[in-house]
């Protein structure tokens, strides 16, 4: 029996078509999981303890805080295979007040946190000079910048206040179950 005949017979059966289709979709998802999933960290292992055991479809506002760590650059293939290091930490909140000198944030547990806007946006090593309307910073890569506090606030509002949705909910460590299932197709 030739290969063409086998394929012809195979595709006459609906169950065979469904099986081949399932294998192709699962293979595609497994291959491109690091691009598709919301949690792009290594092994989809971003843990947000305050989001533990949330129901499917849970949505929350978070403050995206820049970590003071510069990870080495990774190539496309490396990112595709194992994900990336997260340059950000996500802090879920119930209320937030922004002004040019501080952020007043109430987390999901009702605790109030006071944060400096420049520490959210930049990987700050130290503050060199702080004026009323501007600030001079030394970043973790030793670069020195002078920027207005209004610019920092505008950048923060645009790029650092993000909504996160958990399609399948979260596990007991606050990790995204959807991301971990898609990534688990690789096994």
Short characterization:
The chain is α+β, with helices and mostly antiparallel strands and 187 residues long.
Helix-strand topology string: HHHEHEEEHEEEHEH
The geometry reads as: elongated
Q: How much is the average pLDDT?
A: 90
Question: Unreliable segments (pLDDT under 50, ≥5 consecutive)?
Answer: none
When the domains are counted, the total is 1
What's the number of extended β-strand segments? 8
- From the alpha-carbon coordinates, what is the Rg to the nearest angstrom? 23 Å
Largest sheet: number of strands, sense, barrel closure: 5 strands, antiparallel
Q: How are the strands of the biggest sheet laid out side by side?
A: 4-3-2-1-8
Going by helix content, strand content and strand pairing, the class is alpha+beta
**Share in β-strands:** 25-35%
Q: Could you tell me how far the N terminus lies from the C terminus, measured between alpha carbons in angstroms?
A: 34 Å
- Number of continuous helical runs: 7
Overall helicity = 25-40%
What does this structure look like?
With 187 residues, the chain is of the alpha+beta class. It has one domain (39-175). Helix content is 33%, strand content 28%. It has helices at residues 3-10, 14-31, 33-36, 76-82, 117-121, 149-159, 177-184; strands at residues 58-66, 88-98, 103-107, 112-115, 124-130, 134-139, 144-148, 161-166. It has a five-stranded antiparallel β-sheet with strand order 4-3-2-1-8. It has a three-stranded antiparallel β-sheet with strand order 5-6-7. A hairpin with a 3-residue loop joins strand 5 and strand 6. It is elongated. It starts with a helix and ends with a helix. The mean pLDDT is 90.
